[in-house]
Specification:
The complex is a heterodimer of chains A (564) and B (84).
Chain A (H helix, E strand, L loop, with lengths): L2 H22 L5 H6 L6 H12 L2 H14 L4 H25 L4 H8 L3 H33 L4 H51 L4 H4 L3 E2 L2 E2 H12 L11 H17 L1 H4 L8 H37 L9 H9 L2 E3 L19 E3 L3 H9 L4 H39 L5 H24 L5 H14 L1 H10 L5 H22 L25 H17 L6 H10 L12
Antiparallel strand pairs in A: 1-2, 3-4
Chain B lengths: L2 H32 L1 H5 L2 E2 L2 E2 H31 L5
Antiparallel strand pairs in B: 1-2
The chains are: A mainly alpha (564), B mainly alpha (84).
């Protein structure tokens, strides 16, 4: 059977499964809709969190990025997993004990202030919308490559599916669909990785094949050698400065721990000990993909160089032609010798590959059977859809619960609130789809913004809310606002070039040599400093709020997550 | 639970969390970033050690850290009678 037929079968079967689960797990109350009734087992919640967290970027782009960045790619690996340690040890158990539905709920109650709540809602909406636009685009890309439909049609199909289970099922539907999606995506990622690892190093476990030998020497040494020959910097050394690597890693870690769609998952377990445990499961399931990705990156890099470098263009395999048609790969015979020169020097380099195609093209490069190629498509869709659904839920909850119920119309009934949650979800799907079809030019850079903002706003506010009793509303609000503003300023100045003189916005002018991607760490520090300073000079925290803090520090008597 | 017990429980909790975060910092920021060049001089099983920590070792350690935390906290909860 050809790739096309296999794709229809696999994508059709997985979609039927997701829809079946959505119908079976319809939400009946706001509690079902927001936190799946607070009755999800830690294992299931860990699986769902892993799928929620691993987006189209993790599945499709990350291995490709690392493949081209080498050691520098470690920032994603350490950053996106290390954040779970912070989440598990510093936030999840206490937020679960607190027992409300959302992150703005915690900020609003702990800082006894609707202003604080509103700042949190705005930050949550901004972070989530930024993120979801990228997911819908990812859905479109996979559809257009594997089903050969127009990229916009791909986005529409994706919207329809997410619409169906997010609007109908809420958190309950999403959680159980995500469990299925994790299974699909990890299977789809591991099968080609194992095949390729056996092919290249003889070891079926990619994490070990990563250190295995190829061509009579360790594969990493081989790759460093190839890089030196072609003029690239050594794969295992990288080019970023140490301070930048440090700060980017920190921003990604703290940002991960502050992302509302990840935090909210821990509200769904029945007990505090369950919240701790489900962070453990989640990271275990994430680690399976994250330790395989750098191995895949190395295999793909070696395979790519050996296949194309100094080979006559005529003799290259069919996948080169396939991807050349999509425009994501190109060859320009500068010296007219009909042979591909793939080198670091931009003047003489003739071959360009988009980093995003490495994972999708990898099975073809390694000549794997057609069903494996199709499987990767289904996996990419599972990754994109599961993350999009989680984000849409945060968006709809922010509107129906944090804005409407808590501020504008406190008297609406549970039924009305549920209706509004669904309406907000519908609007969110449409807006997300719009961004997927008309992506703003700065989508790639706004992902950095999303992490930076989460790092500079949520993480310090929540942490201080749990670990100090003296942090008051004035401190927390001014901390969040100043952290957000300075991070937005830095990114607007050095990444988007919206303000300031373009001539002075290059890497030479970065503060302390820190790139915009790593600036969230500085934003976080500013937040802490401002919060402490302001809280010293303003009114102390009321006794009943100090009691809330005492209460969330003790695990027993968590009860179920509730609205009141 | 009495106030004194509660203070004691919280202190022990903080101490556990800080020591685990110490390891978290060591394997990623120290081994994977700050000392990566020095550790890369050591080669183990086809990997330069610093590179291995940055792309594999730190992640394995993170998973273990969370599970150690789960165990230690469950024990502490039982000890102070605040488990559910």
């Amino acid at each position: 059977m050809d790739i096309q037929t296999w794709t229809y079968i696999l994508v059709g079967a997985t979609f039927a499964l997701y829809i079946g689960i959505a119908i079976w797990s319809r939400a009946g109350s706001t509690k079902d809709f927001y936190v799946a009734g607070g009755g999800v087992s830690p294992l299931a919640n860990g699986l769902a969190t892993a799928a929620d967290w691993m987006s189209a970027a993790s599945f499709i782009s990350m291995a490709g990025l690392i493949s081209f960045m080498g050691y520098d790619g470690s920032v994603f690996l350490m950053g996106w997993t290390g954040g779970y340690v912070l989440l598990a040890l510093l936030l999840a158990p206490y937020l679960r004990k607190f027992g409300k539905f959302t992150v703005p709920d915690f900020i609003g109650d702990r800082y006894y202030s609707n202003t604080a709540r509103t700042v949190a809602v705005i930050a949550a909406l901004f972070v989530s919308f930024t993120y979801v636009a990228g997911q819908m685009r990812g859905v479109g890309v996979v559809f257009s490559r594997f089903l050969e439909v127009d990229i916009n049609t791909g986005v529409y199909i994706g919207m329809a599916i997410v619409f169906f289970y997010a609007v109908l099922g809420g958190m309950k539907g999403i959680t159980y669909t995500q469990v299925a999606q994790y299974c699909v995506l990890i299977f789809a990622f591991m099968v080609p990785a194992i095949f390729i690892s056996i092919q290249m190093t003889g070891n079926p476990i990619p994490q070990l094949g990563f250190g295995g030998s190829y061509d009579g020497m360790p594969i990493l040494e081989k790759l460093d050698g190839l890089h030196r020959e072609l003029g690239f910097s050594e794969y295992t050394s990288g080019t970023k400065s140490k301070i930048d690597v440090f700060f980017i890693t920190a921003a990604l870690m703290v940002g991960t721990a502050g992302l509302p769609h990840v935090i909210v998952r821990f509200f769904t377990t029945p007990k505090v000990s369950g919240a701790r445990k489900s962070a453990g499961w989640a990271l275990l399931f994430i680690a399976i993909l994250y330790t395989t990705a750098p191995a895949v990156a190395v295999f793909a890099r070696v395979n790519l160089i050996e296949t194309v470098s100094e080979q006559p263009r005529e003799e290259l395999p069919a996948w080169v032609d396939n991807w050349e048609r999509t425009g994501l790969l190109s060859w320009d015979d500068k010296n007219g010798d009909g042979i591909v020169q793939y080198v670091a020097d931009a003047e003489t380099n003739e071959f360009k590959v988009d980093r995003d195609i490495m994972v999708l093209a990898n099975p073809e490069i390694a000549n794997l059977p057609n069903w494996v190629v199709a499987l990767v498509g289904a996996g990419g869709l599972a990754a994109a859809l599961s993350t999009a659904a989680g984000l849409l839920l945060v968006i709809s909850t922010s509107i129906s619960h944090d804005l409407l119920k808590k501020q504008i119309a406190p008297n609406i009934s549970d039924k009305q609130e549920l209706m509004w949650a669904r309406i907000a979800a519908i609007i969110a799907v449409v807006v997300a789809g719009y961004f997927g079809i008309h992506p703003p030019g700065f989508v790639a850079s706004v992902v950095a913004l999303a992490f930076g903002l989460a790092a500079a706003s949520f993480f310090p506010a929540i942490l201080l809310g749990i670990f100090t009793k003296t942090m008051n509303k004035e401190g927390a609000i001014s901390g969040m606002v100043s952290g957000l503003l300075i991070t937005i300023y830095y990114i607007a100045r050095f990444k988007l070039h919206w303000i300031g003189d373009e001539a002075t916005s290059g890497p030479d002018n970065w503060w302390f040599g820190i790139s915009p991607e790593g600036f969230g760490t500085i934003g976080m520090m500013v937040n802490f400093v401002v919060a402490f300073a302001v809280s010293k000079f303003t009114a102390p925290v009321p006794q009943e709020v100090q009691d809330i803090v005492e209460h969330i520090r003790i695990p027993s008597g968590a009860g179920e997550a509730s609205a009141h | 639970m009495s106030n004194k017990n509660m203070q004691e429980y919280w202190k022990k909790n903080i101490r556990k969390v800080l020591s685990l975060l110490g390891i978290w910092f060591l394997v990623s920021y120290v081994f994977g970033i700050l000392l990566v060049d020095q550790l890369n001089a050591v080669q183990i099983g086809g990997f330069k050690l610093g590179f291995w920590f940055a792309q594999q070792g730190s992640i394995y350690t993170f998973v273990i850290l969370i599970w150690v935390y789960v165990r230690q906290m469950n024990k502490l909860d039982t000890e102070y009678g605040v488990n559910e």
